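The passage that follows is intended for readers who have already worked through the single-chain material. We present the inputs for a multi-component assembly, then the predicted structure in tokenized form, and finally a short commentary. You are encouraged to pause after the input and sketch how you expect the pieces to fit together before reading on.
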Amino acid sequence: MRLKKNVQEIGVSCLFILFAIIPILAPAIGEAFYVDVFARIMIWSIAAVGLNLVLGYGGMISFGHAAYIGLGGYTIAIFSFHEINNGFIQWPVALLISGLAALLFGALSLRTRGVYFIMITLAFAQMVYFLGVSADKYGSNDGLNIWNRSEFKIYGLDFSIDDNLTFYYLTFTILILIVFLVRRLVNSRFGMAIQGTRSNESRLEMLGVPTYVYKLTAFVISGVICGLAGILQANFERFVSPDMMDWPRSGELMFMVIMGGMGTLMGPVLGATAFLVLSEVLSSLTVHWHLIFGPLLIILVLYARGGLGGIIDRGQKDG
Amino acid sequence: MEISFVVEQLLNGFQLGVLLFLLAAGLTLVFGIMDLVNLAHGSIYMIGAFFAATMTLALDSFILGIIIALPMTLVLGMVLEFIALRTLYSRGHMDQVLATFGLILFLNELVRIIWGPAGLAIPLPLLLDGSISLPLGIVYPTYRMFIILIGIIVAIGLYYLVSKTRLGMLIRAGASNRTMVGALGINIRLLFTAVFGLGAMLAGLAGMLIAPINQAQIGMGEDILILAFVVIVIGGIGSIRGAFIAAIVAGVIDTMGRAFLDVLLLALLPANAAEAAGPALSSMLIYFLMAVVLIFRPQGLFPARNG
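Having made your guess, compare it with the prediction:
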């Protein structure tokens, strides 16, 4: 047990060390674009950690989390469109909007069960998608360019994220903070209750736990984390479009969580890394990479349920 | 407002409705009986359109093209079920969603390799290329009328099949209690393959019918698939009757919303607000309808399975 736990810690530490040194490593081996690839990986990791809270720990199969990424991103883009670039205004409002959307959609969706829950979360996400598509003023299908990244200026403090290296390490810091936050959360009383609802909700209710409120809270936190990923994505790409909240994005996000192992702390980070590295590698081999990627995903779902994290995380569960 | 315009939009709504029904019928049977969420149903719709387009161009006849393409999609459906989907029956819904999502990526790419990235356009069949006059001075495209007609014929045929034949009896029994049907000595695997093939053929037919209007193109299945899911959730999973009613309601509401919602909003809101809100609200209407139905009747309007 002790050994396995060490293996997990070593694996995860290696990944984070890799994240930390990529901006030095990539130019050294003459592949500077890896910095961008890894910035994207970390942004998607944040979103996957957010989804994992409901999907992995709570057993709520949300097929619409791209909506919260989109709402976070669009809030930044719309502020920037109206030339309000102050991050101290942009970011809290974007988080608030994703959180409120998650509160509304979650409150209604959580009244349903099973496959109906999958479908209603999908329906709400498609509503948000079509809101983006029909927003003529904000570029509809073509999307919206963001000319200036968020600026953090207040009382003499002037923090700029225009520089890609600064942005990279900001994302890195946020990822670490989010992972620690979720770790604290799932190990708390609240986290135990959430995991309890996954295995036996009625028993928890009998014990006097207000499961609906707990699940909804988890759903909102998860939506806010995805909104944060959207804020970062919009700033990083300097662009948003309805495509970032179309339903295949929700599917991909689910895959990242599954790939790394549901309900494990570091699984989503591993999964997002594996998913994006794999698509990067395959797409460099052939234009028709989906022909390999599709069946690979099917095999993964059918035969590797625990995912990558599951393999190295098992030690922790046993011990 | 012209009454003829209203009727025309109503007919357009019906036309979208019957297409949705053709897709939703197969989806709801597969969902109701095998408990399988199949996202790749939209890919079969797309491949059906490509089959029909290829055959039409090769044989120079749309009708012949459809007649040959229909058994082709039937076989495609049964092969897909046999190779890939059969293993998913025992899995949870999330696994099914994800695995069939992978299947969509694969099938889209396969179509891109076989037919190229551009779509395949076919002309309207000569016989149906024109308009017909209806009472009240309404002129309506013959081909769209033809789609509505085919849809209604299929709906009646399907109703007969499900409620009057032995196969239909098994389908209904399977939807209400799968285990019991198996226990009574019915070859459940064969039934599943047959039902899946039937559903695939109906989805293919929908793709074939739309091909002369919208052309066969990659990704055409994805958007309409989500609408078909909305339809079966509103109608109640496993119910053909529910799927038909919900499909027509969804088709009409969607089309009428796009045509008239901004006019309606104009009466309530200032002009620029109405203009901005109109398109957004009308494309969200049926998702909104689904949310309302699920909140007040979580099992859909006509659930097939009792308890």
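Commentary: Chain B has a mean pLDDT of 87. Chain B touches chain A at residues 31, 37, 84, 87-88, 91, 93-95, 97-99, 101-110, 112-113, 222, 226, 229-230, 233, 237, 276, 279-280, 283-284, 287-288, 290-291, 294-295, 298 (CB under 8 Å). How closely did your sketch match?
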